[in-house]
Amino acid sequence: MESTKLFLPLLFILSLLSGKGFGGHHHHHHHVHSHFKPTKLFVFGDSYVDTGNVSPSDSNYPTYPYGITYPGKPAGRFSDGRVLSDFAANLIGQKSPIPYRHLEKVGIKGTKYGVNFAYGGTGVFKTGYDLPTMTSQIDFLHTLIANSTFTPSQINSSFALVSVSGNDYSYYLSQNGPIQGFIPLIEKVVKQISVNLKRIHSFGVKKIGITALGPLHCVPEVTVLTDFKECNSTLSQLVDFHNHLLKQAVDELNKETNDLPFFILNLHDAFLSIIQNKGIPQGNIKFETPLKPCCIGINPQYNCGSVDKDGNKKYVLCDDPNSAFFWDGVHPTQRGWIAALTILLSNFKQHF
What range does the record give for the signal peptide (predicted)? Predict the structure, then answer.
């Protein structure tokens, strides 16, 4: 039951920040396109938003201690608890949509809140896991629409959240791709993101949020080299280049349409702000050592959750996941996501 304790303060913080405090004053912000109330959420992407598509038989399934905060055991989320898509659903007043993998069990009634098509470990292109790329994930939605699972008006009242958090790049590095190939790869990835966003919009989806690339140069997987003390400046230039091209692409897409359907959820600046300020002043969330993860392998060959053939733990776990911004080598804790979304709240809200 640990999780509900955390979730209620989150709702309280979010309600205060959105001006809908309990009995407080309601602040009116006038935005031309703020009357959109999505009834469904469609999620595409990777482990920042996957809520259970990677199956327990997959090699990268997040095992114990993943899920210890919520739902209390591993359930396919790459964190100790809830992830970005859970909170995005919460912010538009919906429940977190069902993972696509579970649809065959529950059928059409499972699609009430939309569908989550994201698979942890995937990228815009193939990343070495035998899992659906973003193009395939969008194909799944296309098929559901073709089979009349969703009516045009349901699609029209939906919001799509797209997460690209760097798997294409880490896969490229793991394959020892030459560093001079990085710039063309980033250009290729962003170009394809643009194609994907356009395609989702062509189905009739009204609002589409795409994540900026987070500060990959600050993830524990990288900062472990400096004992979690500092970020890697070389990598930061590649991240900035991706985000620069992404902004250009999204501006371009918005120019081509008349109702500004696309927006960037700036995880990059939110994460950096949390790292630099050791938390956030609003909502009073603090992380004393923001670059140090809660759960880490005892050496680089092990990950959070690794055990040897006799079942001995090959990782260390902190006492309280709420004290850490990062859960493992690359993913925020549930508390970390709350902090990031608290910062992004007004940016998010102005599109609805």
Answer: 1-23
| Domains contained in the chain, number | 1
Please give the model's pTM, rounded to 2 decimal places.
0.90
Question: CATH number for the domain including 240?
Answer: 3.40.50.1110
Task: Report yes or no: 206 and 41 within 8 Å, Cβ to Cβ.
Answer: no
Residues of the chain below pLDDT 70: 1-34
Asked if residue 142 belongs to a domain, the reply is yes
Report which of 54, 122, 114 is spatially closest to residue 89, judged by C-alpha positions.
114
Enumerate the β-bridge partners of residue 116: 43, 99
Identify the burial level of 85 via C-beta atoms within 10 angstroms of its C-beta, where 0-12 means exposed, 13-18 middle and 19 or more buried. buried
Tens of pLDDT along 220-276? 999 999 999 999 988 899 999 999 999 999 999 999 998 899 999 999 999 999 999
Residue 343 located in a structural domain: yes
Residues designated catalytic: 47, 328, 331
Residue 34, pLDDT score:
54
